[in-house]
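Priority: medium. Attachment 1 of 2:
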């Protein structure tokens, strides 16, 4: 992070988890206009750090400092529980406060379809773009390339390369080519 760039969020010697700590202590900050990847082995606590930033995990030590008024958008690794819910892509965008204007062409036809009719990759892509287009200062993405085809990965690369405008992105991915293509920095995460 550039010292002139104000931090959106700072993890300060933070240990976090659920019943017990599963990650930490870890220290790093993410500034506005930064795209930062969390990298590590399965079970190292990458998703736990995202969930901590979203306020959904217990902090056992250290501290999490968020810029006052920070707005967070969070795409979780598990797909939305949409079975039996007649929700369209356009309504998903509306619920997140996102604008569907100027979406990549392959996504436009998905806006008026029910989410339950979409493939896993199509749903994943809509969820990620809804988070990226939401009025947020910090976007949290957990495995955004899961279930998506190579053409869709290219759409995500383009979107994350252009996801600046004062917002920060913190994401987890096991796809090293994707990480190398979009991340300004990579934070190595290890279990406590």
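Attachment 2 of 2:
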């Amino acid at each position: 992070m550039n010292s002139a760039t104000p931090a959106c969020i700072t993890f300060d010697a933070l240990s976090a988890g659920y019943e017990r700590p599963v990650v930490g202590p870890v220290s790093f900050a993410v500034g506005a206009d930064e795209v930062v990847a969390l990298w590590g082995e399965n079970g190292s606590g990458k998703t736990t750090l995202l969930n901590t930033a979203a306020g959904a995990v217990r902090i056992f030590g250290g501290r999490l400092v968020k810029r006052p008024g920070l707005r967070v958008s969070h795409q979780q690794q598990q797909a939305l529980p949409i079975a039996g819910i007649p929700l369209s892509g356009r309504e998903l965008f509306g619920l997140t406060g996102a604008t569907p204007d100027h979406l990549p062409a392959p996504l436009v036809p998905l806006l008026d379809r029910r989410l339950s009719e979409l493939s896993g990759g199509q749903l994943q892509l809509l969820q990620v773009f809804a988070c990226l287009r939401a009025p947020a200062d910090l976007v949290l993405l957990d495995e955004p390339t899961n279930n998506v085809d190579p053409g869709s990965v290219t759409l995500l690369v383009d979107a994350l390369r252009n996801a600046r405008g004062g917002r920060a992105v913190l994401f987890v991915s096991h796809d090293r080519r994707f990480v190398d293509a979009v991340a300004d920095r990579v934070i190595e995460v290890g279990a406590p």
